Amino acid sequence: MSDLNSKIEAAKEKVASLKQQIVQIQSEKKDTTLGKAAAGVDPPLANLRSPPAVKTRRTLKGHFGKVTAMHWGGDSRTLVSASQDGNLLVWNAFSSNKLQSISLKSSYVMSVGIEQSQGNLIACGGLDNLCTVYRRGAAGDSSATEMASHDGFLSCCRFVNEQQMITASGDSTCILWDVSTAKPISTFAEHKADAMFLSIFPDKKTFVSCSVDQTAKVWDIRAPKASVMTFMGHTADVNCVEVMPSDGKCFATCSQDSTVRFYDMRSMNELQKFSVPAPPSNNTGDEAIDEQPDTFTSLAFSGSGRLIFCGHADSNVYAFDTLGQRSSPVYTIASAHDRHISCVGVAPSGAALATGSWDSQLKVWA
Question: CA-based Rg of the chain, rounded to a whole angstrom?
Answer without folding.
Answer: 21
